[in-house]
Every structure is written in C-alpha cells, then in structure tokens.
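Is magnesium ion placement plausible here? Inputs below.
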Amino acid sequence: METAPLLHIRDLEIEFRRYGAEPTKAVQQLSLDLMPGESMAIVGESGSGKSATALALARLLPEPPATVRATKLELHGKDILRLSPAELRQVRGKDIAYVFQEPSTSLNPVLTVRTQMAESLQLHRPDVKDIDAEIITWLDKVGIVDPAKRLRAYPHELSGGMQQRVMIAMALCTQPRLLIADEPTTALDVTIQKQIIDLLAQLRRDLGMSIILITHNFGIIRDIVDKVVVMFRGKVVETGPVDEVLKNPQHPYTQALLACVPRMGAKKARLPAIDHATL
Ligand SMILES: Nc1ncnc2c1ncn2[C@@H]1O[C@H](COP(=O)(O)OP(=O)(O)OP(=O)(O)O)[C@@H](O)[C@H]1O
Ligand SMILES: [Mg+2]
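Reply from A.M.:
I modeled the complex. Tokens:
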C-alpha cells in the first residue's frame, strides 16, 4: 500500500537578502521525504542551513529578508508555499510544532504555564472541554512531577530542564504530526540532556508522531531517528538510514563530523574546525 509522505520537499532554496549586499543562499537544492511516523536527524555544523530549513517548513522565516522557493514543499498534502496566513496558523500547531534550544524563545516570562498552554489548546483543539485536566495530562507525560502544582508557575520558577519539558508539552498538546526539535538540549546539563533525549524517544514511540531532530551531535541521534540528513553549506551531502550512515559514512564531511562526535554530555557540543579545503 502506498502511503503519502508527511513531508515532501523538492529543490528547496532559501536566500537571505541584505540591503546593499548580494543575496546569500542559505539552502540549495534540498530534497527530502519523511513518511508519517518516521523520524529524521538533520546534522551539520553551524551555519549549514539546518534551522533555516526547519523554519521554512511552516513559513516562519521573515520574508523578506528571506526568500523561500521550491518545486515542492508539501506538509501532510498541503502546499506550504501557497497557503494563506490563516491557513498557516492552522498548520503551525496542528501539523508541525517546534521546540527550540532556548526556553526564552518559546516561553513568555510574564505568563503562567497554564495561560500559555491554554492559548494553543483553545486555538487548535477547541473540542477539549477541561483545559486544566488536559494540560496536567501533558505535563505529566513529559515527566513533570506534581503537574497540578506547576500549572500556575511562571517560567522563572522552573529549572532549565523543567522549562524544556514544559516547551515539549506545549509543542505536543496540540498533537502535531511533526515535531521539530532544534538543538533542544544544547543549553542543558549532561544528565538533563540525556533525560530530554530519552523523553523524546519515548514520546515518539508512544504517540507515533514524526520528529525531526536538528543537532551538531551525531552521538545523540541513534535512539530517536530512522534516518539522517547531513548538511554542509546549505546542501544535503549525505542521507541514509541512521545505522548505515553511522557505520559507513560516505561523504568526507560526514566522516569528519563523526570523527569528532562529542561525548553525550559534553556541555557545549562544539565541533572542531574542519578543514573545508580538503573536502
Ligand atoms: N534571519 C536571517 N537573516 C540573514 N541571514 C540569515 C538569517 N537566518 C539565517 N541566516 C543565514 O543562513 C545561513 C544558515 O543559517 P542557519 O541558522 O540555518 O544555520 P544552522 O545550520 O541552523 O546553524 P546553527 O548550528 O548555528 O544553528 C547562515 O549563513 C546564516 O547566517
Ligand atoms: Mg540552527
């Protein structure tokens, strides 16, 4: 039986224009497919175009300065480049949700956990009658102890790891088909990093959703994803099943990345400079 891909991208190109300067191509000729329930890592060094690609999927890049083009950019059968602003608001939350590295980019410091989660629930799941109960269920699913008590907490009253869990709960409570986790653990301590990655792996199994995990770090992907896309200077240089890419990387850039996999836990997973001239 043929199943339609959840994400279907052909020849994605993202350009940034700055006043008085030549436009820079952040992403070029990017094509990929993701089936429903399938998960993928996008790996590559800083500036390779990982976040730009992820943000373009829900038209979250500011356009201008960005220009997004593609011969196909479909999410759950919807032609993302042709949706109205109102349709895009529905897609964000229902089809795709994001978790970023910095809690401050997703959590509003002056609103309680309840207020923030209730807002997206009301927008995307108007059928939910008991909002508090629903929020408590999600806080519990992401491993927040005593969730009823945390309902009225402000973000600053939570630890970094807890803020990350709240962001995941907030992203998941609308039950998106695709969760994008953009370096979700880079800012966290070693043990918390491991806990969050394990949590994502478990939620993926339990909820059957797709995850795109964006990371510098090959060391954390094996348990979460089925396949890997390696990006280098805005292009996909290698793609394949995770075990194959880890065992037998084909592209010299992938080999270089794998040669410097930081330990699970290195607090700032920085890549040593790779000599691009040799690639
Ligand atoms: N809003 C923007 N305006 C101008 N240029 C941008 C903007 N966002 C990204 N870029 C440029 O696009 C390129 C890709 O950036 P992107 O943020 O996608 O990289 P990344 O792979 O996510 O890197 P990192 O690992 O550091 O997060 C970079 O050259 C960056 O400078
Ligand atoms: Mg990024």
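Short version: Residues 264-269 have pLDDT under 50 and may be disordered.
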